[in-house]
């Protein structure tokens, strides 16, 4: 599935746009757990907004970050995402709701 498909279907707000093919989803707010457990080519759902999420995304080969629950990334995070080419979206929806919607779309 492509990032652009979920952007449209979930009505996500673009922070730093892009379009990649992804295979999995993961929901977690502890960076150390994400680093150890997320699979490459995943979409990561979190409420974290600081620029360390960009570093984790690059290191773990994450396709996109969706910041949930109405949180917005810090300016440092946005600048780091642009510099590193990390796709970030945000949404007012709760992480649980986004995970359920992605699951219903076939993302496991």
UniProtKB/TrEMBL annotation:
InterPro entries: DRTGG (IPR010766), Ser_kin/Pase_Hpr-like_N_sf (IPR028979). It comes from the Bacteria. Residues 31-103 form the DRTGG domain. This is DRTGG domain-containing protein. It comes from candidate division TA06 bacterium 34_109.
